[in-house]
TrEMBL record:
Name this polypeptide is given: DUF3145 domain-containing protein
Domain of life the protein comes from: Bacteria
InterPro entries assigned to the protein according to its UniProt record, in alphabetical order: DUF3145
A family per Pfam: DUF3145
């Protein structure tokens, strides 16, 4: 899934061009008002493409730092799923995901955090960073504002 949580109307065509360029097919999203950010628009689309496309979509969309978005790629045989979140002021966050969408934290990541943050508060802060807590907090109002919004279906050409 690709969620454009908020975009100024003037940037919406650029968002569609970025998605089109990444997927190799023309994209026409159904834009609706974003109640969490009056004057901004939102859109959703489901996409189908090869593994790694979520990262390419996130890379293309982060060119507009005023756009809030999330891109999720489901796991496929031999490849973990991924989620990318972008929020102005926070930048881009990336996490691997399990089949049910939970963030997967690797053993080495946990060992490094535990070894470098023995104090409870520091450990909690670093775990929150690893799980994308700040991005979830920043994007949550925009997620709820999109309940029931129309979804566009996209497929990669090739």
């Amino acid at each position: 899934m690709l969620y454009v949580h908020s975009s100024p109307s003037a940037v919406c065509p650029h968002v569609e061009w970025a998605i089109s360029g990444t997927l190799g097919s023309r994209v026409d999203l159904q834009w609706t008002a974003q109640p969490a950010a009056p004057g901004q628009l939102r859109a959703e689309c489901d996409w189908s493409a090869s593994a790694g496309t979520a990262g390419k979509l996130a890379g293309a969309l982060k060119a507009w730092p005023m756009v809030r978005f999330e891109v999720a790629e489901e796991p496929s045989p031999g490849v973990d799923g991924e989620r990318f979140c972008y929020a102005p002021g926070l930048g881009l966050w990336h996490g691997r995901t399990s089949a049910n969408g939970d963030i997967v934290v690797g053993e080495d990541q946990l060992r490094t955090i535990v070894a470098n943050s023995r104090a409870g508060e520091v450990l909690a802060h670093r775990l929150d960073e690893l799980l994308g807590a700040n991005w979830d907090e920043a994007l949550e109002p925009f997620r709820h504002a999109g309940d029931g919004a129309p979804v566009t279906w996209l497929h990669q050409v090739g």
